[in-house]
Specification:
single chain, about 425 residues, alpha/beta, 2 domains, eight-stranded mixed β-sheet, six-stranded antiparallel β-sheet, binds aspartic acid, binds magnesium ion
């Protein structure tokens, strides 16, 4: 008997009818002889609504209390889904994250799961029940309610799968798998039957929104078999078909198929570039600049420091566009004077486009194909960063679509038209 954790996102439980379909699908899996745990998000739009309510009271909501509010969305869904299961004649039980001991740290609004007490779930599964667990929420060591960050139910699903030693964690969502890039930007984007954890991690951290990054990290670390698949197929799709649908996230050593050099193109729209101009080139400068930014909890991404000329250099980095104004202010007020920089300038209209693929390790010339493709489109590259399996460039946001489409074609990712 297999143990399966299924996670359904907000769209998949966005209406009473959809919740009933989730119930039917879960029962289909259970009746085929599997033990089934279902993790759900809040109904579509609900978390946004709750956060907006909080903001009406406090523009910058108190993080502890915000989590108290935001965590309620999932509780509605688990109750409704358990009712749907029972009304279809299948025994079921719903639990909040707190009831099944999802222990987290105390970082409100972005807490990390530390452990899960899975005994209660196991007992219900052994009693033949489908267990429904609220995603996104946990409790810290002091008993405070925490949430795991937007999209955090993915991580709840994977963490439960890890704690239970599940055979597979199935992430049901409103797309039917992981694509070579966002099909809204490139209609020729193709669904990948499989992708490695490393690639998925890069895709997620580079802007692909299919899975929350932490869920991929978690699955890689605990070797959870993870599949992304559609909840919008008919619920009575034959099990054999559903079992192999979507995209399987695999380990590189388990891959059997010959792969393209580049597996996907990821992009992040809302980037901003900051340059500290004319910084004295001496030890400790990068630290001074970035620690001031880090202390304000602003995440820095790409970093470039030029060769110095006459003892001075320019230091550039990117931040999310939301943090642009704050970063500029911090650097101007706290840093510029201290370190004797000439100026701090920025551009809030940047975006990042990345090519990702484990095949890059064994192929030369991948970056130059990327740069040639962009130059042929007349797109200027502002910054570059690389890892073993990705190359990212920062470009003007107005060229985003053009760049993604051109790269998709250049790396032969366009889907073959059906014969
Ligand atoms: N409901 C939460 C959110 O919207 C968690 C999730 O859906 O994964 O971010
Ligand atoms: Mg999601």
């Amino acid at each position: 008997m297999a143990l399966i954790v299924q996670k359904y996102g907000g769209t998949s439980v966005g209406s009473v009818d959809r919740i009933k379909n989730v119930a039917r699908r879960a029962i289909k899996w259970a009746e085929a002889g599997n033990q089934v745990v279902v993790v759900v998000s809040a109904m579509a739009g609900e978390t946004n609504r709750l956060i907006a309510l909080a903001r009406e009271i406090q523009p910058e909501p108190d993080p502890r209390e915000l989590d108290v509010v935001a965590a309620t969305g999932e509780q509605v869904t688990i109750g409704l889904l358990a009712m749907a299961l029972k009304s279809l004649g299948h025994d079921a039980r719903s639990y909040t994250g707190f009831q099944v001991g999802v222990h987290t740290d105390s970082a409100f609004t972005k807490a990390r799961i530390e452990s899960i007490d899975e005994q209660r779930i196991r007992a219900d599964l052994d009693g033949g029940r489908i267990v429904v667990v609220a995603g996104f929420q946990g409790l810290d060591a002091q008993g405070n309610i925490t949430t795991l960050g937007r999209g955090g139910s993915d991580t709840s699903g994977v963490a439960l799968a890890a704690a239970l030693g599940a055979d597979e964690c199935q992430i049901y969502t409103d797309v039917d798998g992981v694509y070579t890039t966002d099909p809204r930007v490139v209609p020729e984007a193709a669904k990948l039957p499989s992708i490695t954890f490393e690639e998925m991690l890069e895709m997620a951290s580079l802007g692909s929104k299919v899975l929350q990054i932490r869920s991929v990290e978690f699955a890689g670390k605990y070797r959870v078999r993870l599949r992304v698949l559609s909840s919008l197929t008919p619920w009575d799709l034959p099990l054999e078909q559903e079992r192999n649908s979507g995209t399987l996230i695999t380990f590189e050593e388990d891959q059997t198929m010959e792969r393209a050099v580049v597996s996907g193109i990821a992009f992040a729209r809302d980037e901003a570039k900051i340059t500290v101009v004319g910084v004295p080139d001496r030890p400790g400068i990068a630290y001074q600049i970035l620690s001031a930014v880090g202390q304000a909890n602003i995440e820095v991404d790409m970093i470039v420091q030029n060769q110095s000329v006459d003892g001075f250099t320019d230091f550039s980095f990117t931040v999310g566009r939301n943090d642009y104004a704050r970063t500029l202010a911090i650097l101007k007020s706290e840093v510029q004077g201290h370190i004797g920089a000439k100026d701090v300038i920025g551009d809030p209209k940047a975006c990042k486009v990345s090519i990702v693929g484990v095949g890059m390790r064994s192929h030369a010339g991948v970056a130059s194909t990327m740069f040639r493709t962009l130059s042929e489109e007349g797109i200027n590259i502002q910054m570059i960063s690389t890892s073993e399996i990705k190359v990212s460039v920062l470009i003007d946001e107005k060229y985003l679509e053009l760049a993604v489409r051109a790269l998709h074609r250049a790396f032969d990712l366009d889907a073959q038209p059906a014969a």
